[in-house]
Amino acid sequence: MSDTVRENGVIVAIDGPSGAGKSSLTKLLARRLGYIHIDTGAMFRAVALMAKRAGIAADDDAGLAGLCRTLEISFVRDGEACRVLANGEDVSREIRTEEIGLLTSAVSARKPVRAALLTMQRAMGAKGGVILEGRDIGTVVFPDAEVKFFLSASAEERGRRRYLELAARGDSATLEETIAKVIQRDRQDEGREHAPLKQAADALPIDSTSLSIDEVLAVMESAVRERIAKGEKG
Ligand code: DC
């Protein structure tokens, strides 16, 4: 990890499988630090949604490359929430379905999609003062990030959390189905050729299976503040 602090602060990378609590924790940590939150999963989800609408298959690399060349993805703050725009259209809700989640896992394994989003993500984060959450932030996007976390939890616990979220939205999925989907997604994300889900050697691993959000947040916040203080002294 680098010893300098960038123009707007450090870069914090949070990687881990789906359902480990990355989104909630990134949001809370960004608020505490006054940092920008970049949800890279939402960017891949936007690509998957737009590919589906355009009738581009998940393994059509030429079609996906063409789509990414003209696709503009941005984030806008809306009070406490953060909205995802694809070519100016608010797709925040539409990208959160289970169907788009599974399609995203397939589309995000394709090389042209990863290459296009890598460029966008590096441009968004280069000045620091950002927290990026995803699967390959500490390994591929910003291997020189000043602080890296790898957040995990058991598949059963992640499935249970996802099931509760879905039930609150009125979705009728069962707990068993939800856990099975979590395991399927892990396999796709870990087994792919390009930028697979993997813990960076210098990441701080946190297993949130039996920890509260506040407990995990406290560990993360103190690690980041320690690194910022070290950077300011040096
Ligand atoms: O974090 P999420 O569930 O919104 O991510 C959706 C999918 O996108 C997930 O299956 C893995 C993929 N993804 C990725 O490949 N690389 C990232 N940096 C973020 C997400």
From TrEMBL:
- Which molecular-function annotations from GO does this UniProt entry contain? ATP binding; CMP kinase activity; dCMP kinase activity
Q: Which domain of life is it from?
A: Bacteria
Q: Say if the entry is tagged with keyword Iron.
A: no
**CDD domains on file:** CMPK (cd02020)
Q: Where does ATP bind?
A: G16, P17, S18, G19, A20, G21, K22, S23, S24
Domain Cytidylate kinase: where?
12-222
Instruction: Tell me which Pfam families the record gives.
Output: Cytidylate_kin (PF02224)
What is this protein called in UniProt?
A: Cytidylate kinase
UniProt-listed Enzyme Commission number(s) = 2.7.4.25
Catalyzed reaction equations: dCMP + ATP = dCDP + ADP; CMP + ATP = CDP + ADP
HAMAP family per record? Cytidyl_kinase_type1
